[in-house]
Amino acid sequence: MSSQARLSKSKGIFDPVWLIMAGMEPLNMRAFKVILVSLTVAGSLGAGIFLIASQRTSDRIQRKAAQAEAEVKDVAMHGGDVSAILAMLAQVRPALDSGDARRAEGLLDRALNLLAQDRSKPHGADVSSLPVFQSQEKECRLYVDPQLVVIAGYDGSAMEPFISPDGQFLFFNNENDPNVNTNLHFARRTGTNHFQYLGEIPGVNSPSLDAVPSMDAAGNFYFTTLREYDRTMNSIYAGHFDGREVRDVHPVAGNISPTLPLNVNMDASISPDGQTLYISRAVIVPGASAPKKSELMVARIDGGAFAVVPDSAEIMKNINTGPLAYAPAISANGLELYFTRASQSEPGATGIGAKVRIVVARRSSLSDPFGEPQVLGTLKGFVEAPSLSLDGSELFFHKKVGDKYLIYRAVRSSN
Predict the structure, then answer these.
(1) Is 327 in contact with 267 (CB distance < 8 Å)?
(2) Around Cβ 155, how many Cβ atoms within 10 Å?
(3) Percent of the chain at pLDDT exceeding 70
């Protein structure tokens, strides 16, 4: 996507903060790009370090921490891969907390040596190719006749659509751009392809990025937000939509957030029954034009909390095959999974420049893995982010038209 998530504010040199910026072609809001803006390898040193080390050692560690912060930011800004260095630096604070100043300083020395080696390499923008599907793509005509959706009273870009289970509300976010506040909006249905704009959704938005809505039949509302990612790595939140606003916004309960640096849950789709969450998780390389990896995962609720199921990889074995996969949408019966996949090319109306397509993977029963994905061949151009109606008769998605993103609606084929 050619949109950009706004930068959250750095909390100072002793806060472990890396800020997320989405701003790459060709993956819209989904293709999160991490730019290292502030990183502290020693964490909140405070008085604690003086209890475990001499003043001289303390000063030396703080100098090395500041140097590592500055150098890792510079390498990332110039397209270098700092993921291994970040993993090393993440061990510094635990070492200090345990009283092992020698180990902490050793980690800093190793990190600085790696950074010195990296500086000797030529850098520039990462021009590595997008992880795409390389083989001949199979197509199907499950959905046909895509038509523009008209949102009366709204004239901006509309992305990441979600049609409510009752078919009466269309949720979406405006374009991600550093000069605007990316928030969630909604509209009420007035006709087949017509909706009346109702404004931003009360209760759900923050100064950070808020986007990618999804909702189950009980009104439990899910979305992506970066409001606390810098501290918790949580990016999937939930609340309850009552027809007017979203209440009780909170991180999704359970154990679904990544723990490794440069990993992020980009978006999620809840099943209509509220029991299963389909998540796209990306691995980011700072400076790269797209995620290094993006795969789909399955999490189920148990006792009010979600956890990734043990057989998630098996369920997704025909989907997570290398090409970027993101923006999932599940059918009500759980047998059809729609998502966006990075493609070698898109020969549609907008030419060969587009590199993403909407695909579907099907299965015969809930105990089976999803099968080989097929492209929805009638959805041409730069298209992403499918959303199904509860009965499966409609499919909404966004498409880039000129310099704007617009929402379209296709119908289920009778063939």
Answers:
(1) yes
(2) 9
(3) 77
Q: Lowest-confidence range among 136-145, 311-320, 372-381, 382-391?
A: 136-145
- What the block records as the tokens of 148 is 């523009």
Model confidence at 178, in pLDDT bands (50, 70, 90)?
low
Reduce the secondary structure of the chain to three states and give it as a string: CCCCCCCCCCCCCCCCCCEEEECCCCCHHHCEEEECCCCCCCCCCCCHHHHHCCHHHHHHHHHHHHHHHHHHHHHHHCCCCCHHHHHHHCCHHHHHHCCCHHHHHHHHHHHHHHHHHHHCCCCCCCCCCCCCECCCCCEECCEEEEEECEEECCCCCCEEEEECCCCCEEEEECCCCCCCCCCEEEEEECCCCEEEEEEECCCCCCCCCEEEEEECCCCEEEEEECCCHHHHCCCEEEEEECCCCEEEEEECCEECCCCCCCEEEEEEEECCCCCEEEEEEEECCCCCCCCCEEEEEEEEEECCEEEECCCHHHHCCCCCCCCCEEEEEECCCCCEEEEEEEECCCCCCCCCCCCEEEEEEECCCCCCCCCCCEEECCCCCCEEEEEECCCCCEEEEEEEECCEEEEEEEEECCC
Instruction: Please write the tens of the pLDDT for every residue from 17-59.
Output: 222 333 333 344 333 333 222 322 333 223 344 344 567 888 8
Instruction: Report whether 235 contacts 224 (CB < 8 A).
Output: yes
Contact of 39 with 24, CB cutoff 8 Å: no
If pLDDT is split at 50, 70 and 90, which confidence band does 404 have? very high
Contact 342, 361 (CB under 8 A): no
